[in-house]
Amino acid sequence: MKENVTPKITIYFILLTNLIFILYPVISLAKIKKGLPCSACHTMHYSQHGGILTHWGGSGPYKALVINDCLGCHTGNNDGTNYIPYVLSTSPPDYSNAGVSGNTLAGGNFYWVSQGQEDRGHNVKPFPPDSVYGYTPPGGSPLSSQLSCAGLNGCHGDRSKQGDFEAILGAHHANDDVIDGNTVGTSYRFLLGIKGYEDPKWEYKPNVFSHNQYKGADRISETEVDKSTISYFCAQCHGNFHSGSSQISADIGGWGSPWLRHPTDYDMGNTLSDSEYRNYPGDYPGAGATGSNPYSLIAPVGSEDVSSPKSNILFQKDAIITCISCHRAHGTPYKHNLRWDYYGWPETTSINGCNACHTAKN
Ligand code: HEC
Ligand code: HEC
Ligand code: HEC
Ligand code: HEC
Ligand code: HEC
């Protein structure tokens, strides 16, 4: 008996290790890369040879014994091989093709805000506060201090906790194979409670087969709120732009055209079957597109099912408008961190993402 079983086990073992080897780079990118020494990110005393190392931040010691603050570790130029997603560049990033084929990631980049262009993104600390808005998000109530990366006055982590590291503690080491929104580490991009599919390269040069898949909801009233969508995430601060009586649609509690504010968490499948929206994405199919209604990376739509990225969309719960169909969260070279040069079209740019959906308005 033994002689027959052993070779089988060996074959299974070889198959299994091969499979792990094949899947490994894909699964592992969203959490800390295996094989890195602790010292790549941690320092026990914030001291080496009586001083600090050149690649550490200069204002330590930092909480959780890390070598830099949030922005410090997340500063650099993305080249497709970096294991830290960079959201701040120190030289002008390449934002080609509305941020799709250059070297910025899905959230855009804080570079323009860091250069004093305060209306090109969120003015997070340590950059000066926005001189127009101060601490008040349009459509919402004032924060108690300036925006920070995480926590009470920030976006990532547990927003009930004061402090960047307090709000995020444990998330970087968490196993995030399943994004259920239950903990910071298992929420979409450490945004507590939010769901979605995380592209392992944070949308570095994405195509229709590899991109984030944003969570949306096909709502039936302007007061309905699904707390796991990416638009609800924005609405935690910009509430009236997303939901509330007589905020979004004409009649109290209503839902439909004529709108009062641009709808989000609204599925384009609710429009007539011969409407202009059914030709999505018009002139802006994503790279690699084939077939009808391919996903657009210029003006992406969300879906209720976020188990995997969608290369083509159906007009039923995956044609959902989200805040980030038009904006990027961190910053862009354009006013109001819009994904494309809204105010420049048609004079200075041929890209107008509005037309990905409003296909008859080009
Ligand atoms: C690539 C960067 C990186 C590497 C490598 C790394 N860490 Fe961390 N670690 C972090 C960051 C960032 C935090 C703080 C934020 C957080 O907790 O999410 C952290 C937090 C921690 C914490 C506090 C939170 C928790 O999960 O309990 C411990 C303990 C820790 N790391 C231990 C280690 C040890 C031990 C190693 C080596 C085996 C290691 N880390 C390697 C980045 C790293
Ligand atoms: C010591 C360096 C280091 C510090 C400090 C650090 N990060 Fe990270 N961060 C990383 C690395 C490495 C990754 C990629 C691996 C991962 O997702 O855990 C990452 C990933 C992330 C991601 C993407 C998670 C995902 O789903 O892909 C977010 C969001 C993030 N960090 C936010 C923060 C915030 C907010 C802080 C400050 C509280 C912070 N980071 C501090 C190194 C760091
Ligand atoms: C923690 C609160 C908070 C969250 C969450 C938040 N914002 Fe903001 N937002 C602000 C504040 C405060 C301002 C005004 C100050 C500034 O511009 O930094 C602002 C400003 C803006 C602006 C105007 C920027 C400018 O200078 O013209 C846009 C656009 C915006 N937010 C979009 C979004 C989107 C899209 C999301 C979701 C991805 C989002 N916000 C999530 C707090 C928030
Ligand atoms: C992801 C798809 C999508 C994008 C991108 C988009 N829209 Fe819309 N827009 C819609 C849908 C769907 C409606 C609702 C149509 C309906 O209910 O008949 C709508 C509604 C509107 C309305 C109100 C129409 C009414 O009947 O009250 C205006 C105006 C509008 N959009 C302008 C724009 C502009 C300007 C842009 C670019 C900044 C833009 N949209 C980007 C899908 C989109
Ligand atoms: C259809 C595209 C589109 C969608 C969807 C969209 N926005 Fe905007 N947003 C714009 C445009 C265009 C502007 C520029 C000003 C204007 O036309 O109102 C803008 C401006 C803003 C501003 C600045 C307002 C001010 O007072 O200066 C904020 C904040 C903002 N959007 C947040 C959001 C949030 C939050 C969501 C989701 C609930 C969202 N946007 C959804 C296109 C969009």
Automatic annotation (TrEMBL):
Protein origin, superkingdom: Bacteria
Residue intervals passing through the bilayer: 9-27
Ranges of residues in domain Doubled CXXCH motif: 323-361
Signal peptide (from-to): none
Keywords annotated in UniProt: Membrane, Transmembrane, Transmembrane helix
InterPro entries noted in UniProt: Multihaem_cyt_sf (IPR036280), Paired_CXXCH_1 (IPR010177)
Keyword set includes Transmembrane helix: yes
Protein name: Doubled CXXCH motif domain-containing protein
Organism, as annotated: Thermodesulfatator autotrophicus
Biological classification of the source: Bacteria, Pseudomonadati, Thermodesulfobacteriota, Thermodesulfobacteria, Thermodesulfobacteriales
